[in-house]
């Protein structure tokens, strides 16, 4: 099964990196239909501007940066005040040029269509 | 049978009750393990309390807010989406079902002036403090 299994962050490479930061893993739902995959990730507190979706080789990375916190003294906290990030390995059948993303009320929805050539098709027998 | 069930419930509460706020004496036991528990933060400034809750992907009609005796209660439900035909599920980490959170407010508030907004999947409730709960400056007179 070479489908959208989650992959650990890649090992650090010698390149200038931003200071090491912690990320929270968003909860996701992933389903596969005959036309492609649909991925939904929960990122409450992230607006469209804070959303970043990238594909590099066969890795899909979603990053969500939170809006600034409200002012005032924090009396009680349960939320995890870090940005979200999660990396997925893409099924090679996905046409990465046709991925589309939208975010609504903290849910990022990605449509990952399969390339035409791998879609199941029925061949009519004459 | 009842006693066995009670025993199982109390074991569950013993093991997981602290995670879900279940109280062994309320007899609801296992039912309380259903549903989900959105993260709630509370902020305070001079004039207001601010309660935020992470509730991604809801509709505002699905969220209820009530104030009773100094407790602010947020509740509602995320409905199970219609099952898609011929879809295979690879990951299903998002919670569905009812949620219920209660916050005991640290001071009195003006119930009529509470406001709530919902954006980016975060519910924000602004509760103006009652006049007698606001910090006061006491002027000093020099004689």
Structure description:
The complex is a heterodimer of chains A (126) and B (143). Chain A contains no helices and nine strands. Chain A is an all-beta fold. Chain A has a single domain, classed as Sandwich (Immunoglobulin-like), CATH 2.60.40.790. In chain A, β4 (46-56) and β5 form a beta hairpin. Chain B folds into two domains: 1-34, no CATH class; 36-81 and 93-135, Immunoglobulin-like (Sandwich), CATH 2.60.40. Chain B contains one helix and eight strands, in the order αββββββββ. Chain B starts with a helix and ends in a 15-residue tail after the last strand. β6 (73-76) of chain A pairs antiparallel with β1 of chain B, so a sheet runs across the interface.
Shape of chain B from CA axes?
Answer: elongated
Tell me the helix content of chain A: under 10%
| Share of helix of chain B, binned | 10-25%
Averaged pLDDT of chain A, please? 86
Largest sheet of chain A: 4 strands, mixed
Give the N-terminus to C-terminus distance of chain A in angstroms: 34 Å
Which architecture of the largest domain in chain B does the CATH hierarchy give at level 2?
Answer: Sandwich
The CATH architecture of chain A comes to: Sandwich
Tally of domains of chain A: 1
- The overall strand count of chain A is 9
Sheet having the most strands of chain B: 4 strands, antiparallel
- What proportion of the residues of chain A form beta strands (DSSP E)? 35-45%
Total number of distinct structural domains of chain B? 2
Order of helices and strands of chain B: HEEEEEEEE
Distance between the termini of chain B: 79 Å
Described by the principal axes of the CA atoms, the overall outline of chain A is: elongated
Number of helices of chain A: 0
The most extensive contact between chains is:
A-B, 37 and 35 residues
Oligomer: heterodimer
């Amino acid at each position: 099964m070479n489908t959208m299994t989650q992959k650990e962050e890649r090992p650090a490479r010698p390149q200038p990196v931003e200071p090491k930061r912690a990320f929270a893993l968003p909860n996701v739902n992933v389903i596969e239909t005959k036309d492609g995959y649909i991925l939904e990730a929960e990122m409450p507190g992230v607006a469209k501007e804070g959303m970043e979706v990238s594909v590099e080789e066969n890795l899909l990375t979603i990053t969500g940066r939170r809006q600034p916190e409200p002012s005032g003294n924090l009396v009680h906290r349960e939320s995890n005040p870090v940005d979200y990030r999660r990396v997925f390995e893409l099924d090679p059948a996905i046409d990465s040029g046709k991925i589309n993303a939208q975010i609504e009320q903290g849910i990022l929805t990605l449509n990952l269509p399969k390339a035409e050539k791998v879609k199941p098709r029925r061949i009519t027998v004459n | 049978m009842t006693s066995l069930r009670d025993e199982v419930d109390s074991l569950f509460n013993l093991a997981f009750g602290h995670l879900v706020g279940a109280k062994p004496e309320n007899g609801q036991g296992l039912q309380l393990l259903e549903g989900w528990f959105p993260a709630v933060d509370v902020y305070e400034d001079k004039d207001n309390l601010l309660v935020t809750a992470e509730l991604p992907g809801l509709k505002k009609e699905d969220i209820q807010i009530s104030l009773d005796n100094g407790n602010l209660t947020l509740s509602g439900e995320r409905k199970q989406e219609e099952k898609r035909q011929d879809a295979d599920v690879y990951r299903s980490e998002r919670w569905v079902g009812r949620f219920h959170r209660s916050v005991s407010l640290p001071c009195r508030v003006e119930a009529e002036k509470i406001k709530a907004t919902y954006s980016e999947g975060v519910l924000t409730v602004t509760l103006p403090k009652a006049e007698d709960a606001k910090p006061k400056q006491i002027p000093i007179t020099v004689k």
